[in-house]
Each structure stands twice: as structure tokens, then as C-alpha cells.
Design brief:
Layout: H1 5-10, E1 18-23, E2 26-30, E3 36-44, E4 47-55, H2 61-76, H3 81-96, H4 100-113, H5 118-135, H6 145-156, H7 161-180, H8 210-222, H9 227-239, H10 243-247, E5 254-255, E6 260-263, E7 274-277, H11 280-293, H12 312-321, H13 333-345, H14 350-357, H15 364-373, H16 375-391
Antiparallel strand pairs: 1-2, 2-3, 3-4, 5-6, 6-7
Helix pairs in contact: 4-5, 4-7, 5-6, 5-7, 6-7, 9-11, 13-14, 14-16
């Protein structure tokens, strides 16, 4: 028997779910909690399905019948009504700018304005491009954890476990941006933390004992390559910055008379300006280099393309020519070398060492404490390290 509004109003709430038919596939699903939900039962592609039409009385009996008839018309045309609903939602989201692609682009524009390093931006663009084929046209609020996992599994299937881990984190950043801009309510990547294969941790290679470091230092100071490369390697040994911080340095960053190098926030990993004390040997090296490149902005211009800095590969290739394999030493390894030996010396506060390395935690108070308290100790530490490095050549 077809339903009437009077019949629906008189229906009692069941103890378990109950279906009340109206005919032609339309029925009212009664929930124990009191909900009354319209559904249309149909078959498509040999499978039994149900299409949700809304809740009574927000959707009246007459409206439910109209929606049922519209669904039947789609079926007659060979279209799955449930799939059409998803398409309609996606089109509405596209029109309102709420699909993943649009929000991801907005997120990238924001972090660009925030001054994120170009190298980091390139990585984020590349990672999001991996996700776009699966998530790009989907409404941000409709994307489920299982959909994201499909995109992540494709990366994992190629053996790229670390890339999959970073992709999950970057997708999560897009969702949190959507939450912050009132276009999403949750971040489905949070529940996927334990779903991915944990990549094997490989520590950066570095020389971490004084005897082997002595051999490296003597070889660097005797190296006969380009002056820019020789100077950069010597300064890596003396100052142990991140290779990119040194390679891309401009002369305006150096105050040689004061013995200070100020690395701008745009080039530091923590996106905070980082000041480093320059010991005597470092100042001497920079003064000699200035005679060659001081007419340019870049302190370490590439020989083949002076408008660009020397590459990290230039430094690593020089180490290879000196006889140090990639399993023994890299340009980034100077940081691990200094960190290990400075800590082992027992002469310096570990927090001062971390501050000098530019390792800054999330605690803003602690960060300010590092800057304010450890500068004098870092100056003394730089002078001590300067003497130890030069003593290795004797």
C-alpha cells in the first residue's frame, strides 16, 4: 500500500531498523534512534543498490516520489543514479572552488607567500602532482581515508616508502589548510599514519673521528680545484652550515670586520634568520675569495653560469676526486662531523651546539633562549673549532 503523510506521522519508532514501502522501489527506512530516511532500491550492473533521498519531513512524501521518478529516468538511460549524485556534487564543488585541486593550489600559493624555499616548494608541487590523478577533482569534504590510501599505495608499490610517507604528510597539510579556511571539518590522513610501510632509516655518511678528519682536512687544503670550490669546502669544514646555505650565499650577508654571517630566513631550513660567528680562518678565506668574486652578488658563482651558484654536486664531485667515496663523506656530512666531535669534546653546552647547527625546536621560548644566551659560547666554540681544524694539518 502506498504511504500517506498521515500513515507516516503515525508510524512508531522500531527497536530495530525497519523498511516501509511506498512502491516502485521507494521506501522509508525507520531507525531506532528516530530517524526516517527516504531510500530508493534499484539494480544496476547486476548489483542491488540503494539511493539516499533525504530525511522525512525535510523531504516530503511528494518530493521523495519526484526524486524516485528522476532516478528511474536515469536508470532508463543507463546511468547509475548514485554515481550521478557524486558527479553533481563534484561539479558543485568545482563551481564553488572546494575540490582538492583548487585547495591544493591555494595552499601552494600561501606557502609561497610565506617564503618557503624554492627547493621545498618544488618538492611539495611534485608530491601533490602524485595525488592529483586520484583526488584532484574530488570535493575536499567527500574524500575519504581509503581514497587517499589508494594514491599512497601506488607510490608504495614502486618501492618509494619515504615518498609515500611525505605524500601523506603533504596531503594532510592541504586538508588542514581547508579546515583553516572553513571548507573541511577533518583531516582523514591522520588515521593513515600506521598504514604505510616504514622506510628504512639511512643516516647521512660522515667522518666522525679526529684521525680520519685530519686526512680529510689536509686533502681539502691541498686540493687544486677552482678557488670557489676550494673555498666552499674549507668553509664547510670550518663552519659546517647546510650546503645550500653556503653555496647560495650573497656577499651582503657577510660582515667580515665583525666576524658574522647572517643567513636569511628564506634559505634556512627553519625559515628563521640564522647568525653564525666567523672564526679567523673563515674570514681569511672569504677575504681571498672576495678578490675573485666580490664584484658579483653571489659569493660562490658557478664558473659555467655565473648568475647561478655552484651546485652541491660540485662539492661532492670534488670530494670524489680527492678519493672520498659517497659512502665515506658528502658535503652535508660536515654537519654530522662537527656535531659528533663537538659533543664528544665535552667542552660545550649541547644546546649551544644545536643552536650553532641551526637545529631549532618548536618551543619559541627555548628558541629565544638559544639566541640570547648562547651567542658568546658559540663565538668561543667557533674559535676553538677553527684552531682544532688548523691543528689537524700539522
Amino acid at each position: 500500500m502506498p504511504l500517506t503523510d498521515a500513515k507516516i506521522r503515525n508510524l512508531k519508532t522500531p527497536e530495530t531498523e525497519k523498511k516501509i514501502s511506498d512502491g516502485h522501489g521507494l521506501y522509508l527506512l525507520l531507525k531506532p534512534a528516530g530517524g526516517r530516511l527516504w531510500r530508493v532500491a534499484y539494480r544496476f550492473g547486476g548489483k542491488q543498490k540503494a539511493l539516499a533521498l533525504g530525511q522525512y519531513p525535510h523531504v516530503s512524501l511528494a518530493e521523495a516520489r519526484q526524486k524516485r521518478d528522476a532516478a528511474k529516468d536515469l536508470l532508463a538511460k543507463g546511468v547509475d543514479p548514485s554515481q550521478q549524485v557524486k558527479v553533481d556534487k563534484a561539479m558543485a564543488a568545482l563551481a564553488s572552488g572546494n575540490i582538492f585541486d583548487v585547495i591544493a593550489d591555494e595552499f601552494l600559493a600561501k606557502v609561497t607567500r610565506d617564503g618557503l624555499a624554492e627547493t621545498t616548494l618544488m618538492k611539495k608541487r611534485w608530491l601533490l602532482d602524485l595525488a592529483r590523478p586520484d583526488l584532484g577533482r574530488r570535493p575536499i569534504t567527500a574524500i575519504t581515508a581509503s581514497e587517499i590510501l589508494v594514491a599512497l599505495r601506488k607510490v608504495e608499490a614502486q618501492g618509494n616508502y619515504e615518498t609515500a610517507r611525505r605524500l601523506r604528510a603533504t596531503i594532510g597539510q592541504v586538508f588542514r589548510y581547508a579546515i583553516a579556511t572553513a571548507r573541511a571539518d577533518n583531516d582523514p590522513t591522520f588515521g593513515l599514519r600506521g598504514a604505510l610501510t616504514t622506510p628504512k632509516v639511512t643516516h647521512r655518511v660522515a667522518i666522525t673521528d679526529w684521525q680520519r678528519l685530519a686526512g680529510l682536512v689536509r686533502t681539502i687544503w691541498e686540493y687544486e680545484g677552482a678557488l670557489e670550490t676550494r673555498a666552499a669546502l674549507k668553509l664547510m669544514a670550518l663552519l659546517y652550515p647546510r650546503p645550500g646555505e653556503l653555496r647560495q650565499a650573497n656577499w651582503e650577508e657577510f660582515e667580515l670586520d665583525k666576524g658574522v654571517w647572517t643567513i636569511p630566513a628564506t634559505r634556512t631550513k627553519m625559515r628563521k634568520e640564522h647568525r653564525k660567528p666567523l672564526p679567523v680562518a673563515a674570514v681569511d678565506i672569504l677575504r681571498d675569495l672576495y678578490k675573485l668574486t666580490g664584484t658579483r652578488d653571489l659569493a660562490f658563482p658557478s664558473i659555467s653560469a655565473p648568475a647561478r651558484p655552484i651546485s652541491e654536486n660540485t662539492l661532492n664531485a670534488a670530494l670524489r676526486r680527492m678519493g672520498f667515496t659517497k659512502e665515506e663523506m658528502t658535503s652535508h656530512g660536515f654537519r654530522a662531523t662537527a656535531s659528533t666531535l663537538l659533543n664528544e669534546s665535552g667542552k660545550w653546552n649541547p644546546d649551544a651546539i644545536e643552536a650553532e647547527l641551526g637545529h631549532v625546536g618548536a618551543d619559541e621560548v627555548r628558541r629565544a633562549y638559544h639566541r640570547a644566551t648562547y651567542w658568546e659560547e658559540r663565538v668561543a666554540m667557533a674559535a676553538w673549532w677553527n684552531s682544532e681544524i688548523l691543528n689537524l694539518m700539522r
